[in-house]
């Protein structure tokens, strides 16, 4: 029997198989197996007997206590990286096409090369855009003051349009940059591999070579990776093991806010979040995100409540909206935007059965303002109160935040990191917070914000909804 010359590779997780599956047995992705030529990369290095390539070193004799970092100008970016760019590290920046990855990294490159930040030489390799296109974008990104560009184009930033990894390596040898940006990994190919650009074997192998480069030379490498849900191009999962840090740029394409989230970081805390706004002059840091997310809020209108959600170590205040309308025919619909649909279903059921808010003949819409995705159960209470507020046509107290998870019996459950959440609400001028009944009083809750403990959803509704007749709820 002749040896097979092809294999099937899952484009999501990299599982290989001699036969195709409709659904990948490892990661359960549908239709993700693609036939690729079977190749044996020449990765085995000839061994020289007697001369080991590495030496074990005593832990206390290794120099350097803390990881050195390059001065990173964009502070929201530095925050997500855990304090700045680490030399010799490889960072994957993933996200949907068009979300702003190239823009953000070009901005980073331009700022790092400026003299104010140590003029680090940077090489920007693009497999997608021509040098001219990148220059046009760079001109657009220059900071303006009184209608004039503030700084001239950086001299230490070199651009090249190239997709062949060997050629890119040569450029790096020549230019000797401190930072290399590869835009994007799906366009880069190794000529000894016959599979097409963006296939799992190409992506995995190019990323490994780039990692070797980073580790051996001390150059920091940023790799952009497109993520599509269809699994047409190599998913980021095969890359996640190879790189030191994985950042995702997320956001609603039709909204201006973007979240840069770290999901893996060898040099800092994970799930740290940086918040940006996409403007016509690039990505602008949002220094006080809670304030930004609440900027357009209408107070004293029914169907709106404020939740405090944790994004990594950072508490964020977000407005959750609920709307109920009578179902015209058929089954009532539940629609979630920025919220987990299952939590909306659960909360609607609990409202109906446990809190006297009858939603059986109501269509329910629940929405997070600002294009943010809130999946935390801690937002249950705000979501439920917003929906109840819409049905009863009673607004929620404008200066109140609602924090808590709701159980099936309509009970409120404690959530983690309550103190930073309350502190953030207080900092933004909120005067009251409805939280679950405390079981332990070990930690003192922040002063400056009135704490209202509620055991059940029903109690929370009584505390938060303003009755038109009696003008104020109990407790104020
Ligand atoms: P881009 O960085 O090319 O996205 P990605 O590399 O993730 O595919 O961003 C593309 C979008 O950003 C495009 O729709 C235009 C918009 N944009 C702005 O709104 N302002 C800007 O200053 C720039 C450069 C782009
Ligand atoms: Mg791009």
UniProtKB/TrEMBL annotation:
It comes from the Bacteria. GO terms for cellular component: cytosol. GO terms for biological process: recombinational repair. Residues 66-227 form the RecA family profile domain. InterPro entries: AAA+_ATPase, DNA_repair_RadA, P-loop_NTPase, RecA_ATP-bd, Ribosomal_Su5_D2-typ_SF, Ribsml_uS5_D2-typ_fold_subgr, Rubredoxin_2. HAMAP family: RadA_bact. This is DNA repair protein RadA. It comes from Leptolinea tardivitalis.
């Amino acid at each position: 029997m002749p040896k097979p010359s092809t294999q099937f590779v899952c484009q999501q997780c990299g599982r290989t198989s001699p036969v195709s599956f409709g659904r990948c047995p490892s990661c359960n992705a549908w239709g993700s197996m693609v036939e690729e030529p079977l190749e044996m990369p020449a990765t085995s290095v000839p061994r020289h007997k007697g001369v080991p390539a590495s030496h074990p070193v005593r832990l206390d004799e290794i120099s350097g206590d803390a990881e050195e970092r390059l001065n990173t100008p964009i502070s929201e970016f530095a925050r997500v990286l855990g304090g700045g760019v680490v030399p010799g590290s490889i960072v994957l920046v993933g996200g949907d096409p068009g979300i702003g990855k190239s823009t953000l990294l070009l901005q980073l490159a331009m700022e790092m090369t400026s003299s104010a930040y140590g003029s680090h030489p940077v090489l920007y390799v693009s497999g997608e855009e021509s040098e001219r296109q990148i220059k046009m974008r760079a001109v657009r990104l220059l900071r303006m003051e009184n209608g004039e560009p503030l700084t001239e184009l950086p001299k230490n930033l070199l651009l090249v349009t190239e997709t062949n990894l060997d050629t890119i390596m040569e450029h790096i040898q020549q230019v000797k940059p401190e930072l290399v940006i590869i835009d994007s990994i799906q366009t880069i190919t190794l000529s000894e591999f016959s599979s097409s650009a963006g296939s799992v074997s190409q992506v995995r192998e190019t990323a490994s070579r780039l990692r070797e480069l980073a580790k051996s030379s001390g150059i920091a490498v940023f790799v952009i990776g497109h993520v599509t849900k269809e699994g047409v191009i190599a998913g980021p999962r095969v890359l996640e093991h190879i790189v030191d840090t994985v950042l995702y740029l997320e956001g609603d394409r039709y909204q201006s806010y973007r979240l840069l989230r770290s999901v893996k970081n060898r040099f800092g805390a994970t799930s740290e979040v940086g918040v940006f706004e996409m403007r016509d002059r690039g990505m602008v840091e949002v220094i006080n995100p809670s304030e930004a997310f609440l900027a357009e809020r209408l107070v004293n209108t029914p169907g709106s409540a404020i939740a405090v959600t944790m994004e990594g170590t950072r508490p964020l205040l977000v407005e959750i909206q609920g709307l109920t309308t009578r179902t015209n025919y058929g089954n009532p619909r539940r629609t979630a935007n920025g919220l987990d649909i299952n939590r909306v279903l659960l909360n609607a059921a609990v409202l109906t059965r446990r809190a006297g808010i009858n939603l059986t003949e109501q269509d329910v819409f629940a929405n997070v303002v600002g294009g943010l995705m809130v999946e935390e159960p801690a937002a249950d209470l705000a979501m439920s109160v917003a929906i109840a507020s819409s049905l009863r046509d009673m607004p929620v107290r404008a200066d109140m935040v609602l924090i808590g998870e709701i159980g099936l019996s309509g009970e409120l459950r404690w959530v983690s990191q309550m103190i930073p959440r309350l502190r953030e609400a207080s900092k933004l001028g909120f005067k009251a917070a409805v939280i679950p009944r405390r079981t332990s009083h070990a930690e003192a809750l922040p002063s400056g914000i009135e704490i209202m403990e509620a055991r059940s959803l029903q109690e929370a509704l009584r505390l938060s909804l303003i009755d038109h007749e009696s003008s104020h709820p109990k407790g104020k």
